[in-house]
Amino acid sequence: MTGESGTGKERVARTIHDLSPCRAGPFVAVNCGAISPNLMESQIFGHEKGSFSGATSRHRGFFEQAQGGTLLLDEITEMPPEFQVKLLRVLETRTVVRLGAESSIDVDVRILAATNRPPLAAAEEGKLRKDLYYRLRILEVEVPPLRERLEDLPLLARTILEEIGEQEGRRKSIGPDVMGMLQAYAWPGNIRELRNALYTAFLLSEGPELEAASIPHEVSGSPRLDPDPGATAIRIPVKTSIREAERRLILMTLEHMEGRKDRTAEALGVSIKTLYNRLHAYGCMG
Fold it and tell me: Which residues have C-beta within 8 Å of that of residue 151, sequence separation ≥ 6?
């Protein structure tokens, strides 16, 4: 699986697992970039008691922990090349050898790998062995950034908000005005940023519904930028309030006019004073 950081690759991996024949088995997610290189083999393949200083007991590695289920190797391009050779052998033989052990262990695990780098580019840079890449690439799934699939945002936002509600012990909903704000933002941090924004709004909103004022300013105060820099149109979801539609129109026009307030006011057919008053109300002055 490939895609920008924060696009939800682990969430996709979890869904693949939940819909697969091995869904009754465990789902184990490992961030390869978070493991120290000198502990990589011990953590992933396991070790025997006494195999190295500090190994006071036997440790079942991630492959054994995922037996009968799915193992996600996230950020696989952060795995040291010398360890990638050992991983390739495990994939070929379907066996692992714990550090310090004399015999191998059969493993029945579905392997999913993820990276935020283009795999072939990573291979050319020496970050990913080509033989390992071709061994893993039985099926490649590209997870697009959130800005390219805003039609998914309402379902994602409600699902994430339900998860936050379960964690916090109370539930809240999203009204059309707030949903309109969320759909108008470009989300450079993708689903990870969406979750953080919803969590902030959840904690700051006093009532049963997320309040527009609780949405982080970088989300509520930024119009959605069209991928086409020459675009002269904006997209406003149905059920957006007139006030919110006006705010987006003004801010996008100001962006299109490269910050020229006189030209923005002229294009909108309002006085410069009215434009300044609106921008002040939006917190865009100062």
Answer: none
Give the start-end residues of each E strand in 39-176. 46-47, 59-60, 70-74, 95-96, 105-106, 110-113
Give dist(CA 49, CA 12) in Å, integer. Answer: 36
pTM: 0.71
| Upper half-sphere CA count for residue 149 (Cβ side, 13 Å) | 13
Of 63, 65, 132, 72, nearest in space to 94 by CA: 63
Q: How many residues does the chain have?
A: 286
Handedness of CA 117, 118, 120, 124 (dihedral sign): negative
Q: Give per-residue pLDDT as tens, 194-237.
A: 999 999 999 888 889 998 888 888 887 644 444 444 556 666 76
CA distance 147 to 142: 14
Domains and CATH numbers, the chain: 9-136 (3.40.50.300), 151-281 (1.10.8.60)
